[in-house]
Amino acid sequence: MGFQPIALLSYAITSLSYLFTKPYKVSTASTRGAHSLRYLVFLPLGHTAGTQHPLHVCFHSGGFIGGVPESTISFCEQVAKTTGSVVVAASYRFAPAHPFLAAVEDASDLLHHLIEVGLQLWNVDTGNATTSGFSAGGSLALGLSLHNNLRWRIKACVTFYGAIDMRTPRLQKLIPGMPKDPFAWLGPLWDTYPPPPEKKYLWEDDRLAPGEVEDLSRLPKRIMLMVAGINILHAEQMRLAVMMGGRAEVAEYRDKWHGWLEIPGMGKQREEVFWRVCRFLRDALAMEEM
User: Fold this and answer.
1) Buried b / exposed e across 203-240, counting CB within 10 Å, b at 16+?
2) pLDDT per residue as tens digits for the range 60-85
3) Which CATH number do you get for residue 284?
4) How many domains are contained in the chain?
5) Domain that holds residue 48
6) CA separation for the pair 208, 202 (Å, rounded)
7) CA-to-CA distance for 34 and 39, rounded, in angstroms?
8) Contact at 8 Å (CB) between 44 and 63?
């Protein structure tokens, strides 16, 4: 996969500090298919068997064609420390070998795996959960609330420049005057994620475009949208913000581009953004307890 070397290089540069001291454990989850999902587990400070902890599930970026959960280490570690949650960073199957709805099925299978083992392994309160995702992962994080067999509601969700409308073709999202995307050559690969036109039932699945769902009560009670201004996904995120009204908190960074939090040299700004998000998640969990 052509995208994977790029993803791995970016992760290696931004995560050198974790090379010898890994703040997570690695585990796997069985799925409905003949494969398993690899995920990372971050335990909060003072984690004990006698106290139940909230669950936070984070999905990495990669345009549905690549990426690794290690790219979210700094964020997940901060969420665990700040909110007291057990944090899981997960991967999923990629297009073109595995188009929609493989990734959303993996997200659903992971969640049900965590429901089964979370209490026993990490004393997780699986009924007290939040989610997050970067880019493509934002679609999976927001879409978790739309699974028909979900036993409980996601309390809050954060998307970082999320791809939350995959029904609209990529080329229709291009904005005149926007700087040239250095990764535009990957466009044909990104376009392999949506289902083929003849599979109309998949195009009607709300998890393909969770930001366009008609019944907003199906989405998490609180949503935070971290929006990059120089981004073809800008419009769909702002559209959801308007639809959600007071239930959505928007942080718009007009001079930032898609994926800016995941590139080298953004340490201080990344830390500030992650701290803002962690406060949002902590407050959302606190409101549920009141």
Assistant:
1) bebbbbbbbbbeeeeebbebbbbbbbebbbbbebbbeb
2) 999 999 999 999 999 999 999 999 99
3) 3.40.50.1820
4) 1
5) 3-289
6) 8
7) 17
8) no
